[in-house]
C-alpha cells in the first residue's frame, strides 16, 4: 500500500498525546522522519522489483504476492499493538527497537538465498515497521504542542510524501543498476542514522502501566494470515479447493475469537468495540477497506503489467507511478481545507467516485501503446480522486467517535487501509499468475473490479455520513 495515503490517517493519532516541551526540536523531527522513511520506502519499492526477484530466486508467479503480503500482514495486524507498546515501554525505546528489528530484517532480505528466507525476513520487517511507525508519531505528539505540533507532524507527513514518491523510481534504478538486493541494503545507513539521532537527542516518554493485549495481537495476526493465505491460494490457482475453504473458515473463526477477546477486555482491548456503536465510523471503516483495497491492487499490478507486458525496465515502471504521488502531495491540502468548510460527506462521496472513473479509464490501458495516452490519464484521475479523500477521511474518523477514542480510531483506520492492500495483493495473484500474453486482459478485469469497489466506497460515504 502507498505510505503517503496512510500517513494522513495515522496523523491524528498524535492528538491524544499529552503536550510537552522538547530540548532538540529539529533533531527530534529528524529522528522520526528517518525512522518512518524506512517503512514508507519499503512499502512501495518492492512493487517494481517483483519480476526481478521472481527470476533470480526461480519463484513461481503465484508466490510473488507473498513478497508484499509477508510485509503487510504483520504491519496491518500489529499497528495498534505497536502503538500501545510504545505507551507501555517508552516511545524512544520502542522506536529504536523497531529500527533495529527492521535493519536486521533488511539484511536478511538482502542475503536471502531462496524465497522462504526472503518471506521470513519480510515478515520481520513488517513487525519492525509496526513498532516504529506509531512510536515515531507518538514522539512528535508528546514533544510538541499547539501549532508547533501541527508543523512538526506536517513536516513528518511531507517527508513521507517525498519517500513515497522517490521509492518506486529509486527502487527501479537500483534493480537495473545494481540488482534487487540493493533496495534492502539501502535501509542500513538510514537505520544507523535514525538510531544515533534518536539515542542522542530524543527524550524518553513516561511509561504507562497498563496491560498489553497480547491475545488480541496474536488472534488478529493469525486471522489475517489464514485469510490472506487462502485468498492468495485461490487467486493463483483460479479455483477453490479444500485448503482454500479451510483457510477461509479458519480465518473467520479466528476473527470471531478476536472479537470475543476484544469484547471481554472492554476498554483495555487493542480495538475497543465501543467504536462500532458509531454508524459513521462503521461506514468509514468499510469505505477505507474498499477504497484502499482497490488502490493497493493498482500499485502492485500496474508496474508488473508494464514490466512483463510492455517490456518496461524497473526504472521506467517506477517513474510511471511518480505522477500519482505528485498529484496527491499537491492537491490533498486543498481538499483538506475544502472539507473543513463544507464537511467530509461530499469530498468522501465525490473523491472515491472520481477514483472509480480513473480505474475505468485503465480498462483501456495497453502496455504496448503510448504511456501518455494509455496509462497516464487513468493514473491522473485516480490520484485526483484519492487526493480529495485522504484529508477528509482523517477529519471524518476523528469526528465519528468520542474524544477518548480518537487515537485508537485513527490508528485502527490506518490498519484497515493496510488490510485492504493486503487483501488486494492476495487477489492480485489471479493476474500475476497468468501468462504474459494474457496479463493485459487480466489487468483490465482487475480495473473493473477496482472501479466497482471505489464507487461503492463513495456510495457508503453518502449513505452513512451526516449532512
Structure description:
With 467 residues, the chain is an all-alpha fold. The chain folds into two domains: 3-213 and 270-464, MFS general substrate transporter like domains (Growth Hormone, Chain: A, Up-down Bundle), CATH 1.20.1250; 214-269. Helix content is 79%, strand content 0%. The protein contains 19 helices and no strands.
CATH class category of the largest domain: Mainly Alpha
**Percentage of residues assigned to helices:** over 70%
Number of domains: 2
Q: Which blocks of ≥5 consecutive residues have pLDDT under 50? A: 1-20
The dominant shape is globular
Specify the biggest β-sheet: none
How does the helix and strand content classify structurally? mainly alpha
CATH topology of the largest domain: Growth Hormone, Chain: A
Strand content: under 5%
SSE series: HHHHHHHHHHHHHHHHHHH
**Rg from C-alpha positions?**
21 Å
Q: How would you name the CATH homologous superfamily of the largest domain? A: MFS general substrate transporter like domains
Helix and strand topology:
Elements: H1 3-11, H2 25-45, H3 50-56, H4 65-89, H5 91-111, H6 115-143, H7 146-177, H8 182-185, H9 187-201, H10 214-237, H11 242-265, H12 279-310, H13 314-320, H14 322-342, H15 345-361, H16 371-374, H17 376-399, H18 406-432, H19 439-464
Helix pairs in contact: 1-7, 1-17, 1-18, 2-6, 2-7, 2-9, 4-5, 4-6, 4-10, 4-18, 5-6, 5-9, 7-13, 7-14, 10-11, 10-18, 12-13, 12-18, 12-19, 14-17, 15-17, 15-19, 17-18, 18-19
